[in-house]
Design brief:
Elements (H helix, E strand, L loop, with lengths): L2 E3 L2 E7 L12 E2 L22 E2 L8 E8 L17 H6 L22 E6 L4 E2 L7 E6 L2 E3 L2 E5 L3 E6 L5 E5 L2 E5 L4 E6 L2 E9 L6 E7 L4 E3 L5 E3 L7 E8 L6 E7 L5 E8 L3
Parallel strand pairs: 2-21, 4-7, 5-21, 8-11, 10-16
Antiparallel strand pairs: 1-2, 3-15, 5-18, 6-17, 6-19, 8-9, 11-14, 12-13, 12-15, 15-16, 19-20
Length: 269
């Protein structure tokens, strides 16, 4: 299972767990100095420690591919009910709007998986980026459908449509009636979180919110890569998807290792 080539380590895992957000602990940011509470059940989302992370000592970028077990990818269905809003319907007059809950390539590569470090960073604290994450509403869809963020990082929610949307999210519930309107918030909660629109029920987005920066979302070819290097040490890396069972893998990063290829296969629940 382990092969080393040009400083890279390759891991493949088939695991089990719960892929639904209800099984994952969620955390509310408390007042300064107040102890954080941890919900029971599900894999650990790393809460912050007290030591600054020595980023300059990081050695390896984790990357890989996530695939779905099976031989035939699931079909993306046409979204129903979109004709209830003439402007939403007009935005997709040339091509029907398709569901985004299962986006799997012909080679069984899964898009929209959240890959993250779920253990091994508990002693460190991390500063959130100052640059905001942009979540747009385009053609009566959230773009992106799946994204990750750090707790306390700014998040900007935009309405690029000429119709009214109502954002129902962990950072608030409000209407956006003007095209181009942007609402600026800060993410205050960690966990696997849901964004929806109270007016257009097919509109949903999934957010993975963390206290550390070691997370990524897979693209259409199932690939992902963390943006920062991990220190030498032992970690658990997990993959969450809104429709598939969660998988996790133990990974060891060694001194002098420049890359860790960590590949996963997921199963339908």
């Amino acid at each position: 299972m382990l092969a080393t080539l040009a400083g890279a380590a390759l891991f493949v895992l088939q695991g089990c767990g719960q892929g639904d957000a209800s099984a994952i602990p969620k955390y509310k940011r408390n007042a300064p100095g107040e102890k954080k509470t941890v919900a029971s059940g599900g894999p650990s989302i790393q809460t912050p420690g007290s030591d600054p992370y020595p980023e300059a000592q990081g050695v390896a970028i984790v990357s890989g591919v996530v695939k779905l077990n099976g031989e035939k990818p699931p079909k993306r269905e046409t979204v129903k009910g979109i004709d209830a809003d003439a402007k939403c319907h007009a935005a997709h007059k040339d091509e029907p709007l398709r569901t985004e809950t299962e986006v799997v390539s012909a080679n069984m590569e899964i898009a929209n998986c959240i890959v993250f470090v779920s253990a091994g960073l508990d002693k460190y604290k991390f500063e959130p980026p100052a640059e905001p994450i942009l979540v747009d509403q385009v053609g009566c869809q959230y773009k992106p459908h799946v994204f990750t963020i750090m707790v306390d990082q700014p998040i900007h929610i935009k309405n690029s449509d000429s119709t009214v949307h109502n954002v129902n999210s962990p950072v608030g519930n409000w209407a956006q009636s003007r095209q181009g309107e942007v609402t600026e918030k800060n993410m205050t909660e960690a966990g696997f979180l849901n964004f929806s629109c109270d007016i257009h029920p097919w509109m949903t987005a999934k957010c993975g919110s963390f206290f550390h920066p070691f997370h990524a979302v897979t693209g259409e070819n199932g690939s992902y890569a963390f943006s920062k290097k991990l220190l030498p040490g032992k970690y658990k890396i997990s993959v969450w998807h809104e429709k598939y069972s969660m998988v996790s893998q133990d990974v060891e990063i060694k001194a002098g290792q420049s890359e860790a290829k960590v590949e996963f296969k997921m199963d339908r629940k």
